[in-house]
Specification:
mainly alpha, 2 helices
Length: about 100
């Protein structure tokens, strides 16, 4: 019958053996800890960047969908009117007389 804690115990023994071997060289141990920390930080940054990029892509698709709807169906009616829709013509102010 297999011991259920076997792989965990073996990993623990290996880690203890590695730390015991590194006691004579503390800089190497610190370097390994720093390397694992940097790897963890890089994975975190990659995950955060992926989440941000996913949100940005969703916003771009939503914007494109809204633009397509506006192009297809036209703008909704608002209270604004074009100047060309007025019933009376535009009157220009009198020009100043030159030479007098």
């Amino acid at each position: 019958m297999m011991n259920p804690g076997g792989p965990v115990e073996e990993a623990g023994k290996t880690a203890r053996g590695l730390i015991d071997a590194m006691r004579d060289q503390p800089y190497l141990l610190a370097s390994m800890v720093l390397n694992f920390t940097i790897i963890g930080l890089l994975f975190y940054v990659a995950h955060a960047t992926h989440e941000t990029r996913s949100r940005e892509v969703d916003l771009v698709y939503e914007n494109a969908k809204q633009l397509q709807q506006i192009i297809t169906h036209g703008c909704p009616q608002s209270g604004m009117r074009l100047q060309s829709e007025e019933s009376r013509p535009v009157e220009f102010p009198p020009s100043p007389k030159t030479g007098e």
